[in-house]
Structures are given as C-alpha cells and as structure tokens.
Amino acid sequence: DSGNIKVGLEHLTPAEQAKARLQMVLEAAAKADEALKAKERSEEEAKRRKEEDQATLVEQVKRVKEIEAIESDSFVPQTFRSSKEIKKSTEPTELQYEPITITVGNLEASAPEKEPLAASIPTAIKYQDDNSLAHPNLFVEKAEAEEKWFQRLITLRQERLMGSPVA
Q1: Contacts from 148-152 at CB under 8 Å and sequence distance 24+?
Q2: From start to end residue, where is composition biased (Basic and acidic residues) (predicted)?
Q3: Cβ partners under 8 Å of residue 17, min gap 6
Q4: How far is Cα 37 from Cα 3, in angstroms, rounded to an integer?
C-alpha cells in the first residue's frame, strides 16, 4: 500500500526517502523478473515433456507395427548379417608368401675355407618344422621385408588415389 509506505518514510529526509523508494522498486523488479523466469522455465519444461511424450508415442507406434509385422504370416525370418563381415569381405587379402629355405651349397675347392660364399650364408633363422610356435613367414631377410613393405605401400597409395578409403 502506498499509504503504509508514506507513513513508514515520513520520518526520513527526502534523500533517504528517494533512496528507500528506489530500493523497494529494485526489489519489486527483481521479484517480477524471478517470477517471469520461473514461468518461462515451467513453459519450456512443459514443452520438452510434450515433445518427449510425442517422441515416445512415435516409437511405441513404430514398435507395435514392427511386432505386428513379425507376428503376421507373411514374415520371412532371415539370418543375421553383421556389418563387420561385410567390411572383412571387401578388404583385400594380403598375399601369403611361401617360406624360403637357404641351404649351404657345395663349396668349390679353389675357394679358401675361411671365406665361404656370401650368398650361401644364412642370414636369418628359418623354421621348417610345422609344429613350431613361430611361423616361417616371420623370419624374412631384411631386403625382402623392405620390398614387401614398399609394394604394400604402393598398393595402398594406389587404392587411395582411386578413391578407396584406406584404414
């Protein structure tokens, strides 16, 4: 009430009265602002709930239709196919290399015994036993491994140039 406010402010000086009125106006504005924000929040929350309810209704209708389609006589069950299997089948398979064995040949009699032929000296361990833990393709000469790597790099770059995504 403006009457109660005037009675409460009569004992103050005019400057203090103006300051007190300004303070009351600011407090009233803050309360009104809070009320508007609360109203906006409640409206937004109601709108969000309504959208969620509509989304769930759409999902429920879709689910019911799918169940009806499965339960109908015209439904034909199919085997499940994973997308990973499709990716595996489209990837190029890497070439399998046969294990190479190096045997020390007969040395010529004219060659000194201390210096055997450099080409016939094995440079890596080669396993011929099928029951071994290490695969024979793991032991390759350095030059051969570099050549295989270089060829693989070339094929990957060619695939990339042709537009194929390279993993």
Answers
A1: 148/97, 152/94
A2: 34-53
A3: 9
A4: 30
The answer to whether residue 131 scores a pLDDT higher than 80 is no
**Tokens linked to 119:** 């080409």
**CA nearest 139: which of 90, 101, 95?**
101
Closest to 104 in 3D by CA, of 92, 87, 116 = 116
pLDDT digits (tens, 9 = 90+) for 15-46: 888 898 899 899 999 999 999 999 999 999 99
What is the residue extent of each domain of the chain? 8-75, 136-166
Q: What is the mean pLDDT of the chain?
A: 76
pLDDT of residue 147: 92
CA-angle at 54, arms to 48 and 57, nearest 5°: 140
Tokens of 48: 């969000």
